[in-house]
Description:
By secondary structure, this protein is an alpha+beta fold. It has helices at 2-7, 12-21, 35-44, 72-82, and strands at residues 48-51, 55-61, 64-69.
Amino acid sequence: MLKYLEKLGKTQKEIVENLIKEKCFGDVGEASSCPIAKYLKKKTKKGNIEVDDKFIDINYGASNYKRLYLPKHIILFIKNFDSEKYKKLIRQRKIYD
């Protein structure tokens, strides 16, 4: 799981550019639909993935659960994303009348 995060890059600029390339847009403040969670789901095709400000939680079903610490540069990205710093990565919702 962490090897995929390494491929995103080390700088905030690299992470944003790579998530845009991968078309991983997300929702602010949503653990299962932030760009990092969507990217990991796309790459691994494993279980339910949620990220918060410190961890990746992977639920494979039943009692099969794994928690991993996020690297510091990914923690910073999530903090910045949830502060709406990366507007290009915020998923645009369609509003219907």
